[in-house]
Amino acid sequence: MYKLLLRPLLFWFDPEKVHHFTFSLIRFFSKIPGFSALFRSLYEVNDKRLEIEVFGLKFKNPVGLAAGFDKDAKLYQELSNFGFGFIEIGTLTPKPQEGNPKKRLFRLKADSAIINRMGFNNGGVQLAAERLKKNKNVLIGGNIGKNKLTPNENATSDYEICFDALYEVVDYFVVNVSSPNTPNLRELQDKEPLTQLLQTLQNKNLAKPKQKPILLKIAPDLTDEQLLDIIDIIKETKIAGVIATNTTISRENLQSGNKAETGGLSGKPLTKRATEVIRFLSEKSNKAFPIIGVGGIHTAEDAIEKLEAGASLVQLYTGFIYEGPALVKSINKKILQSKH
């Protein structure tokens, strides 16, 4: 129904407006008695065999919603009714920020892709933390970044502010230094600044009575040498794992007319590269840490490929927009079939 009726209608309109409209729609229907249960009956796959423990957390299934969809933690409870095992909110920054000027979100229909240059638009970490206090049993990841105007030499303090604000209300953290839409942010992926940033957060974490897993979200555009550096950094800082990958700045083999828009590309063109990065990290590290696989998952087979390449969990974003919530169910069913 989604791909035949709803998607063609939604795709007539501006993607960012559609995003807000869809949020309002989901919220509206979720308030009607019985609708949340209906969504769950349509999309949830409840089976003990789907449960998995990763970095000390128990996931009811391995399919999550990636950061960027529910940046401000406004709809995580309702979105969990579509069968996700976990929801990642953010990217959040210490101060609220508007993000980049609109128009900043573009569909590349011929490529089943999206280009975004949102620029960490969010209402600030404090507001999101307040909303998360109302959480009823949704496993939540908190994706954190720095404000656009914070210079890189002061970036660590931005990440610390977000860490402190979210510590009580999220289950794991994701350090985002790989978005292409905040000027110079990707420079923080270099070995020295990244080690320093992660070590500072890990020290903060170790001082807490209960540690929260810290993960690093990396770009798909890193070279093999840089990926080997990432493995070293994880070994040294002892953070919990990696999310591979964020959006790409590559524009190889695209068909769509608006492919020249600046920003991060997500969707089908990323499928192969994201899987390559997962496989490389898994093999070269000798499976030393868990990986969450994200990037171009549009079918159940795409998800299985990422799991077989070495991912413990997977996340959807663009695939969820193009394929609809039935994708979550089909992945979970495929995982069950592969367990026979």
From TrEMBL:
Gene3D superfamilies: Aldolase class I. It is a peripheral membrane protein. Its cofactor is FMN. It is found in: Cell membrane; Membrane. Substrate binds at residues 71, 116-120, 176, 181, 246-247. It catalyses: (S)-dihydroorotate + a quinone = orotate + a quinol. FMN binds at residues 67-71, 91, 143, 176, 217, 245, 267, 296, 317-318. The lineage of its organism: Bacteria, Pseudomonadati, Bacteroidota, Flavobacteriia, Flavobacteriales. Keywords: Cell membrane, Flavoprotein, FMN, Membrane, Oxidoreductase, Pyrimidine biosynthesis. Catalyzes the conversion of dihydroorotate to orotate with quinone as electron acceptor. The active site is at 179 (nucleophile). It comes from Flavobacterium noncentrifugens. Belongs to the dihydroorotate dehydrogenase family. Type 2 subfamily. One of its GO terms (biological process) is 'de novo' UMP biosynthetic process. This is Dihydroorotate dehydrogenase (quinone). CDD domains: DHOD_2_like. PANTHER family: DIHYDROOROTATE DEHYDROGENASE (QUINONE), MITOCHONDRIAL, DIHYDROOROTATE DEHYDROGENASE (QUINONE), MITOCHONDRIAL-RELATED. Binds 1 FMN per subunit.
